[in-house]
Specification:
Layout: E1 2-7, H1 13-23, E2 31-38, E3 41-48, H2 51-54, H3 57-62, E4 67-73, E5 88-92, E6 95-102, H4 108-117, H5 127-140, H6 145-155, E7 161-165, E8 170-174, E9 183-187, E10 197-201, H7 205-209, E11 213-217, E12 222-227, E13 230-235, E14 244-245, H8 246-252, E15 258-259, E16 262-263, H9 264-278, E17 285-288, H10 294-304, E18 312-314, H11 327-337, E19 338-340, H12 342-345, E20 349-354, H13 361-372, E21 377-382, H14 404-407, H15 410-417, E22 421-424, H16 427-432, E23 441-442, H17 444-447, H18 456-462
Helix pairs in contact: 4-5, 5-6, 9-10
The structure holds guanosine-5'-monophosphate, iron/sulfur cluster and magnesium ion (MG).
């Protein structure tokens, strides 16, 4: 999912949120929502569909306030329907809160039971509603917004990057591992006449689009509280162990976003360079699978000396195939999405670079299409390791039995996909290629080494 928040009484906050969500569209395409707050008055509009389909000028004009909180959703816990769209609203003793969540909790069962015991009506099937209710509960038992938030966060295990709007200001946090990203930006930072205003967003690309300047990431286990007097920060987690999702770096985040000062475009290009050294191929042309494989393909071409070219054209108007939540749509999605360029491919030995193979569905169809278009040899190189384990922290890499690499050797995958040769990057190369600390990443879907323990009941639902 994508989350966004802004506190800026003199700006059109709904419009800022709209553009922020527009830049975060790749993080979730099922539903979009914006809540605005002005003192005690809360307004919300959320619906199924893309940001551009959900909102129009009239709807945005009706959303007035000093604060806006926005969300783009793709479902991991809770099904795909409008009742589960976010922000989630909860009424408290101190007024309404609007919560937008990215990530996935692993102690949902426990949390749900505790809240049901307190006679809460659960309106949705999402873990995000549970966080909002836990916070409402704590506020109603006498805490202020910050105390209420901290007591709720301490009850949560798993991945949560949150933006929470209240009548007083917006709160932002990341779980103690910082599995999902969240960044702070500033509006009017270099103006003498305009007040400095703060923005929170899943990725820096959402700051760029509204002309906000990147300040820093919210730290794992940190709470930031943004009000009329600026920003304050405190550390609520007793133990912090940074484990940013490495899949954000490799695939999920936009290449024009940065983490901890590192450009994801450059990181992905360097992955391609390392891949060319670790797993060379003899061919006439290097091409990337659009769009996510392209930076690595450029890197591969640089180091191998094999010319880079475009062998596939992507229909820009089709969403991410894997984000469509069922297999049939995924298969239709692939056929709608990529078209091979016959005159580029004919008679050529090609190296095809992709960022990942998850189920193998895309790759298999793609390879057949490239051969049909005249490629004489197809060598596939993947700029990440084999995905062998499911994610419980908010990326829908599917159940283990759907993962092509869970049970197959690389040679068996090669045959399954139908390529002449297949090479992956190692886990070491993947983490050592970032400019950040290699230990500061979650790599569980490649290693099975889950940084936040997953309860057996939950494991059983996804593991073979
Ligand atoms: P596959 O061959 O596994 O069907 O698809 C691999 C391609 O689709 C890659 O280009 C990758 O960008 C994208 N992809 C498909 N499914 C997923 C998924 O569940 N997670 C991620 N991260 N990427 C996926
Ligand atoms: Fe990211 Fe994989 Fe860890 Fe999930 S298991 S958080 S996809 S690295
Ligand atoms: Mg891709």
């Amino acid at each position: 999912c994508g989350v966004f928040g802004v506190y800026a009484p003199e700006e059109d906050v709904a419009n800022l949120a709209y553009f922020g969500l527009f830049a975060l569209q790749h993080r979730g395409q099922e539903s979009a929502g914006i809540a605005t707050l002005q003192g005690d008055r809360l307004q919300i509009y959320k619906h199924m569909g893309l940001v551009s389909q959900v909102f129009n000028e009239g709807i945005l004009a009706d959303l007035q306030g000093d604060i806006a909180v926005g969300h783009t959703r793709y479902s991991t816990t809770g099904s795909s329907h409008v009742g589960n769209a976010q922000p989630v609203i909860v009424e408290t003793r101190l007024g309404s809160l609007a919560l937008a969540h990215n990530g996935n909790l692993v102690n949902v069962t426990e949390l749900r039971e505790a809240l049901l015991d307190k006679n809460h009506n659960l309106l949705t099937t999402t873990d995000s509603e549970l966080i909002a209710l836990a916070m409402g509960d704590a506020v109603d038992s006498g805490g202020d917004w910050v105390q209420g938030a901290i007591s709720a966060f301490k009850r949560c295990q798993g991945a949560f990057s949150l933006v929470i709007g209240t009548p007083q200001g917006i709160l932002g946090t990341r779980d103690p591992q910082g599995i999902r990203p969240l960044v702070i930006g500033v509006l009017n930072g270099d103006s003498d006449s305009l007040p400095t205003r703060y923005v929170l967003a899943s990725e820096t690309c959402a700051l760029d689009i509204i002309g906000a300047t990147y300040v820093r990431s919210v730290k794992p286990g940190e709470l930031v509280w943004i009000t009329d007097s600026g920003i304050t920060s405190l550390q609520w987690a007793d133990q912090v162990l940074p484990k940013l999702c490495v899949f954000e770096m490799i695939y999920f985040s936009r290449p024009d976003s940065c983490y901890e000062g590192e450009s994801l475009y450059s990181y992905r290009q360097r992955l391609g360079q390392v891949l060319a050294k670790d797993s060379p191929a003899e061919a006439d042309l290097v091409m990337g699978v659009p769009d996510s494989g392209i930076p690595a393909a450029i890197g591969f071409s640089k180091v191998s000396g094999i010319p880079y070219g475009e062998g596939l054209i992507k229909n820009r108007y089709v969403g991410r195939t894997f984000i469509q939540p069922n297999q049939h749509m995924r298969e239709v999605g692939i056929r709608m999405k990529l078209n091979p360029l016959r005159d580029v491919l004919i008679g050529k030995r090609v190296v095809v670079i992709d960022d990942s193979i998850v189920r193998g569905t895309t790759s298999r169809k793609l390879v057949q299409a490239l051969r049909d278009a005249g490629a004489t040899e197809v060598h596939m190189r993947i700029s990440s390791p084999p995905v062998t384990h499911p994610c419980f922290y908010g990326i829908d890499t599917d159940n283990q039995d759907q993962l092509v690499a869970a049970t197959r050797s690389i040679e068996a995958i090669r045959q399954h996909i139908g390529v002449d040769s297949l090479g992956y990057l190692s886990v070491e190369s993947m983490v050592n290629t970032t400019l950040n600390e290699p230990e500061h990443f979650c790599t569980a879907c490649f290693t099975g080494d889950y940084p936040v323990p997953v309860p057996d009941s939950m494991k059983r639902s996804k593991l073979m």
